[in-house]
Amino acid sequence: MRMTDLSIEPARLRLHGTQAALEVSCPLPGVLRLRHAPTSASVGFLHPELPDKQSWAVVSTPGARPLEVTREEGRVRVRAEGVELRVELERGTWSFHDADGRELARSTRVAGEVKAGYPMNTYRSWLTLHAPPDEAWLGFGEKVGPLDKRGMHFTFWNTDVIPHHPDTDPLYQSIPFFVGLRDGVAWGMYLDETWRCEVDVALADAGAVAWESWGPELDCYLFAGPLPMDVVRRYTTLTGRMPLPPLWSLGAQQSRWGYENARDVRGVIQGYRARDLPLDCVYLDIDYMDTYKVWTWDRTRFPDPAALVRDAAAEGVKLVPIIDPALKQEPGWSVYEEARERDYLVRYDRGGVLVGEVWPRPAVFPDLTREEVQRWWGGLHRDFVALGLAGFWNDMNEPSCFAVQPDVGILTMAGKRSEGVGTVEGQTLPYDARHGDKRHLEVHNVYALGMAKGAWEALREMRPEARPFLLTRAGFAGIQRYAAVWTGDNSSHWTQLETSIPMLVGLGLSGVPFTGVDIPGFIGRPSGELLVRWMQTGTFYPLMRNHAAKGTQAQEPWRFGEPYLSHAREALKRRYRLLPTLYTLMHEASVTGLPVLRPLVMHTPKDSEAVGAFDQFLFGKDLMVAPVVRPGQTKRLAYLPEGMWMEWPGLERPGAIQEGAQHVIAEGRLDTVPVWLRAGGAVTLTRPAKHTTTANWEDLEWHLHAAAEVHGRLYEDAGDGYGDFRITELEGRLGEGDFKLTRRVQGSLPMVRKEETVRVYGLRYASSVKGALSFRFERGVLEMRVAADWTEVTVAT
């Protein structure tokens, strides 16, 4: 990719040779965009000028920053706000540096090829990065494996896989973004290409991370750190952040492909209530539809949907129906006829409407990559919204297609008929299917993103007083702007419980914080022990849903008998106790992009041991969770990062305080979840309830681990909508002879509680307290009752 000429503009540098072109710009502080076009002369019409490109993922482009360009012997140096790029003109390779001149990344090869084909040309574009032996590679979205993906190979092609296993790739989401970490310094790269692509993470060559796109470009964004959280913040500034979801969506959720009628739905709600099990949401799978036609009801099974919604609401439960994109090709059905008449359907290469099979047969596919189709699709939610359905579950949206009906093809130049259907990879549409003026090979990975975008924007318009809730199986970079993500059709195996942790942490590192996994596995036969351990882990998932497949045993918590039911109940009540902290972390994610589930290295990036601790995680910055994820174990090895940590199993019984940067043996009986509270950390809990109501908590407990500095935060509002809020900031200082706590409040949300409880761990003694209504010091725990509007408390130690 040799470069011979350059054009310098205030905010863009263009370099090109006889065949290739490269554009460099700085869209945000600490971020560079490198738009490689290795076959520009063969693909474009205006080489070396590159055509305008509209990104599906990038939403934040406030204006490119000015560049300072210096031409040196055989090299061009580009400086921008907080970053620097050095381009070697002879080879077209580059090195990426931070503001201190430290090299963060280096490309070793940029190349491409174009092959004439029928009915479409094929492209390949390659970018290879140097992979130092001590560098960890994190993220990559929804991918299997440990936290560090070194030594793995991934394909980005949204795929319907049932069931998936610990080594299955590709899966349902394609997010070509990663964080590199070396010597405590982080950087990141996002490949903004929707085409099918692959990455080899130092597997074929231990010294290289090799990207291959099946498109004609490699549009890269490079992010400087120096901390992992800096990279994630910059990436989510570029691709958007999760909007704060409604509180009810953080409660317990129950689903099953197999609740076949309204009686089943009412029964499962009654089953939860009769056994004192918290519940906020029940899903309706495809059995509610009339002959699998989306937007319809089977009136023999669900004769009165409005009454079902009302009955569920009376128990504090929301209903969420599944929505699949495939439309039944049924003449006379209004949805199909409207899509056909408006030319909203995906077509064969020949031009006719593509016909396949999903649950409906025959099935056609709305072209959800086009904005006018997205708006039309969003409008189809109106009747369901009017019924009071609280959210929507987007499934089969890779898009999944079990079979494609063949077309007769067209005559080739040799006088023979071409194959009617081109290459099909997985259960989906052919590479050459037509989406407007684009091919499926280019837009397959963003089909689900278009579906979610159309739904979310419609829900904001139809129900402006409520926050939309969407759950999606498939997606692309930027999906966090519209939907929560669950990891698809997993299995009831212990290995899948263990690997759910790095999978969800990887999604969080890739900008998607609202995630979950089917508990205790979608397919299989879970034991009572597996149910309990998965629910204990799922207590900390942002989305906590029990879901199972038709043809498997029922797995609502009471199906396993005692003692498992009691342990499951405790896990659910723990979840509801934790909601003030979880809700606050979700608000933080909506503002900063930082995930709820975090790898240990996010806050201790220089700790090489923390990278290997992939079966544990931080819940925010202050709680460290190391759940038991293997059968028969009552103890487990856990790694404590640097700092001081207090054992706090199950958020209940304070234990020993231990120094970090070491491995410890944690107790993990079946009734125990190993949890630690960081010194200087503060979390909030409330009383458990049978369902959520408001995030303006009537009962609130602060739990603090005393240290030289303590920081806590609580976000409160009505739990839905866009009204008043209140943010409480708590700071503590442990000095010589006293421990002082101060509290600051911003926002206009009225206070509903009159008192709060503050529990402080880690103090040796407390002789008196100034500013509290009452206090007691017992067994190393200081418990204070304070007025809800307290501003300062001083503890004599």
TrEMBL record:
Segment forming the signal sequence: none
Keywords tagged on the record: Glycosidase, Hydrolase
All residue ranges annotated as the Glycosyl hydrolase family 31 C-terminal domain in the record: 593-681
Gene3D superfamilies xrefs: 2.60.40.4040, Glycosidases, glycosyl hydrolase (family 31)
CDD domains named in the record: GH31_glucosidase_II_MalA, GH31_N
Domain Glycoside hydrolase family 31 N-terminal stretches: 22-200
InterPro entries given in the database record: Gal_mutarotase_sf_dom (IPR011013), GH (IPR017853), Glyco_hydro_31_AS (IPR030458), Glyco_hydro_31_C (IPR048395), Glyco_hydro_31_N_dom (IPR025887), Glyco_hydro_31_TIM (IPR000322)
Pfam families reported in the protein's UniProt record: Gal_mutarotas_2, Glyco_hydro_31_2nd, Glyco_hydro_31_3rd
Domain spans labelled Glycoside hydrolase family 31 TIM barrel: 243-585
Family according to the record: Belongs to the glycosyl hydrolase 31 family.
Name this polypeptide is given: Alpha-glucosidase
Species this protein is from: Pyxidicoccus parkwayensis
